[in-house]
Specification:
Layout: E1 4-7, H1 11-26, E2 32-37, H2 42-58, E3 63-68, H3 69-73, H4 75-79, E4 86-88, E5 110-111, E6 120-122, E7 148-152, E8 154-155, H5 166-170, E9 174-175, H6 178-190, E10 195-199, H7 216-226, E11 232-235, H8 245-253, E12 260-266, H9 270-276, H10 282-295, E13 300-307, H11 314-327, E14 329-336, H12 353-378, E15 382-389, E16 392-395, E17 400-402, E18 410-419, E19 422-427
């Protein structure tokens, strides 16, 4: 029986779960549940602990292995759970040897089990390089099937936003060399993928650590040029302050690069952005959306926003709320602020949790209204749709599309209606 993988968090975690699935299989790991955790919010950690307890109830004889960012930052917390047999950090989780002998010899990264739990923690060693998922070959993310595949090109982050704990879990920014990115992309297309999503912890930081400091725009252009058999390329979350001129040029010129930008905004008020230690202003965010739609009028904008950041008053929140409409943010991810121990924001004056919940709900409502309006505006138009599974596809601007179940590949469709956050599509042919 192959191990069951339970994934929380970002697309990068989803991609890495596929690497885990492969290397655990190579190691011969049988009856096991591997929980790949996220540390972005306290809620993500709560859900992971809940999943661990449920996994033990449902699989009493299985080995329970916990990994991911939350496990990397707080290994003792998870090792102390009676349901957990093993904890792996973000380095160890991508290596087959981590899933073989449960008691490898010291000192190869094995922390002896605590007397209380009889369990142990495997970490990659403080000075060992973090294995990049691209080194393991590209795999489609959990639930996406083979139509879309994530390809990690960057890992870690050199920035220190005051709310974010992820740099401590993922380490400094490192990039995969362009030649390797191209090779992995070719393998992915040969395996059947019709769309590749370039992903990373801080994707727009790509290349700063490589010889010649190639940019994200540079690797995007070269990948499209050297892998002409790739029909569609998409980018994951981008920092609006770091989008380079070459990337804008590729976005304007190359139709195989999807007209969809997902921006790491976090707030729409300049003072809150400053307190978050973000590198863009409200005006820059608006200019990014305007520039994208000037270059590609069909472009759609997605964004991440945090609700209820410490010190945020109603006027500051209103600036963020208004930004959703001003930028026409079609695909909105809202995160209620959650203090992460060890971050500067955790020491700032916190808001009442009820206020945080209310502001998150108002942002989500605004995002839903923007999505519905965008989908209505697309009715009567046509576009290419990537079929992800029978009856479900994805438009080039990222909207999900309900379509006939017998269609495969990429099909041009006319959008005839919208409901439930999805478009309805029929083949133009």
């Amino acid at each position: 029986m192959p191990p069951e993988i339970i994934t929380f968090g970002c697309r990068l975690n989803a991609f890495e779960s596929e690497i885990i699935r492969r290397v655990a299989g190579e190691a011969g790991l049988g009856d096991a549940v591997i929980v790949n955790t996220c540390a972005v919010t306290a809620e993500a950690e709560r859900q992971a602990r809940q999943a661990i307890r449920r996994a033990r109830r449902e699989h009493p004889g299985a080995r329970i292995i916990v990994t991911g960012c939350a496990a990397t930052l707080g290994p003792a917390r998870y090792a102390a759970m009676p349901e957990v047999d093993r904890v792996l950090d973000n380095e160890a989780k991508l290596r087959a040897e981590s899933y073989r002998d449960p008691h490898p010899p010291s000192p190869a990264g094995w922390a002896p089990p605590s007397p209380a739990s009889g369990r142990g923690v495997i970490n990659g060693g403080a000075n060992s390089p973090l294995p990049l998922a691209g080194e393991g070959g590209a795999r489609s993310a959990t639930g996406e099937g083979k139509a879309r595949a994530y390809l990690q090109v960057q890992q870690g982050c050199d920035h220190r936003c005051t709310f974010c704990i992820i740099p401590y879990a993922r380490g400094p920014s490192r990039s995969i060399p362009i030649d390797m990115v191209v090779a992995r992309a070719r393998e992915t297309v040969a395996a059947g993928a019709r769309e590749i999503v370039l992903t990373g912890v801080d994707l727009t930081a790509y290349g700063a650590d490589l010889p010649g400091a190639p940019s994200l725009g540079g690797v995007t252009r070269r990948l499209l040029a050297e892998v002409p058999e790739l029909p569609r390329l998409r980018l994951s979350s981008l920092d609006p302050s770091e989008i380079d001129d070459e990337l804008w040029a590729v976005f304007a010129e190359e139709k195989r690069l999807m007209p969809h930008l997902h921006l790491s905004l976090q707030a729409g008020d300049d003072l809150i952005l400053k307190r978050m230690r973000r590198r863009h202003s409200r005006a820059q965010a608006l200019d990014t959306a305007r520039r994208a739609r000037t270059l590609r009028p069909e472009a759609a904008i997605g964004a991440d926003l945090i609700a209820g950041f410490p010190t945020e008053d109603e006027a500051m929140f209103r600036n963020t709320l208004d930004l959703v409409a001003e930028m026409n943010v079609t695909f909105l991810h809202v995160f209620p602020y959650s203090p992460r121990p060890g971050t500067p924001a955790a020491r700032m004056p916190a808001l009442d949790p009820e206020i945080v919940r209310d502001r998150a709900a108002r942002l989500r409502a605004a995002g839903q209204a923007a999505l519905e309006a965008e989908l209505r505006s697309r009715i009567g138009t046509s576009g290419d749709v990537l079929i992800e599974k029978p009856g479900i596809g994805r438009a080039d601007f990222y909207a999900p599309v309900i379509c006939p179940a017998d269609i495969v590949g990429i099909e041009q469709m006319r959008f005839t209606g919208a409901a439930g956050g999805k478009l309805m599509g029929v083949p133009v042919r």
